[in-house]
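note to self: dont lose this again. the chain is below, predicted strucutre after it. 331 aa total, dont forget to put it in the shared folder this time
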Amino acid sequence: MEILAFGVQADEKPLIEEAFRGHGEVRCLDVFLTEDTARIAAGHEIVSTSVNADLGARVLEILAAGGTRMVAQRSTGFNNVDLAVAERLGLTVARVSSYSPYAVAEFAWALALAVDRRIVRASTRTRDFDFRLDGLMGRDMHGRTAGVLGTGRIGEAFARIAHGFGMRLLGWDIAENPACVELGMRYVPKEQLLAESDLVTLHVPLMPETLHLVDADALKLMRDDAILVNSSRGGLVDTVALVHELRAGRFTGVGLDVYEAEAGLFFLDRSLEAVEDDTLARLVTFPNVLVTSHQAYYTQEAVGQIVGTTVRNVLDYRAGRRSENVLVPRS
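---
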């Protein structure tokens, strides 16, 4: 049985091929699953998809009509999947419920420090042999306040690093994490966290309840010299409202590894094309903003775990087993 894997990055391909060795053939495609590419899957019972795959109703219908019976998503989030339609069509859907939290937490810190210490601007200058320090002054993190929105495994890992810097910790979540409390984190309402934090980082899933969790009102609560980092899901931040605040000269820095309209842009080379997304085009022009292309998870350890879990999900499907990774069980 050949498994068809969509949206496979060059670094990812050998890991996927090795992981599936002895468990069936796998065909890796660099194209992403969309309505235009879904028909490629015809005749494949199992397909594997990447984080930005379109798994809406129409795509699922095309997959089901072509004989697909199982979708193994190589990501944790599933806001891109129409689970109700998948269940109606009899499609089994599985995800990777967890992988290295350190990959994302460490990258979130890389973004925070890069915008705080003006690393990108400094690197660009020195490439031109401009070694002035004008405009490059940052701030110590020690003694400042880190606000963590979402204190699960990734939020906890971020908080541990913040604790190592000697920062005061504020947290917000539906339930307190005892490990974070042991670090000295104090749980407060979201509004208080935004108002008191020097650094705000997002580590919550994207759901209808968390869409634009950081909206125009939330942004106005933040300190003018605060740092905002989002390495979770783009839809957590109202980007139009963020651009408005940046135009007003607010925030020391903003580090974004995700963007709410990233599908069709991120993971692709658009350098020779006209930019149609005016919001993103404006966002990347701000000198205090750093945007990366959804790479926080992209370490050898994390990708290895993602691929390994995907293989186990496929084997469970074949054996009729169900695990915590199954979103829609086999009918």
